[in-house]
Amino acid sequence: MFDFLKPPLLAVQEFYVLAGSALRNVFRTPHYSDDIFLQMDLIGVGSLPSVVLTGFFSGAVMALQMARALQQYGQVGKTGQVVAITLVRELGPALTALMVAGRNSSGMASELGSMKVTEQIDAMRALGTDPIQKLVTPRMIATAVVLPMLTIIADFVGIFGGFIIATYVLNLEGSQYWSTVWQSLEWNDVTQGLLKPFVFSFAISLVGCYYGLRTTGGTQGVGRATTQAVVMASVLIFILTFFITKIFVNLINA
Known about the structure:
Elements: H1 6-25, H2 33-71, H3 79-117, H4 120-126, H5 131-168, H6 174-184, H7 187-213, H8 218-253
């Protein structure tokens, strides 16, 4: 009667087994440092242009929209405060993670999926190499390192985009904008804004690798795994955003 539950439950079980193995391999040798730095370059530097553009225009749009709303209360000078808090707490981490997921979670799934269907992963096992330690753990570590850094860059560029709008469109003083930005941010905001991308990084990397390693059906299966990885990683980002925000809100109100 409940046979339809078996495939999703099996998928969850396999994902947790993969995640546990990848996390355990962080403390085991060999660490494949060259692969980690290579993935940091591919994920971090490769995602930088899209992250910068997304961050800049997010901040600019936020400044335009918030200034219109604040104008009703005569508080246009608070535009910098609203832009900074919104970007650092929520939009910066979420949008950066979504951009990285769209670019790299799909890339991991397609790369590992191609290796799976061409039996390269089976060949690695035959030679005594652990595919999870060689392929998954370096990608997970690299994503966990570079995603918070990308988020910091996106936040700063977004706040700068808001500054451009505030100065040249809203005719606010630049010093007023930056002072409200500086005064509005607290350690709780910064902590929340850096913890989220760190948690997101595990979802992005592990989901991409999971769908890549379970690819079947040749090249058509690779395309299917790539699509599934992007969709699932994006959904998990929004789910994790809700729960992390809920935790911080409860801590503040406690």
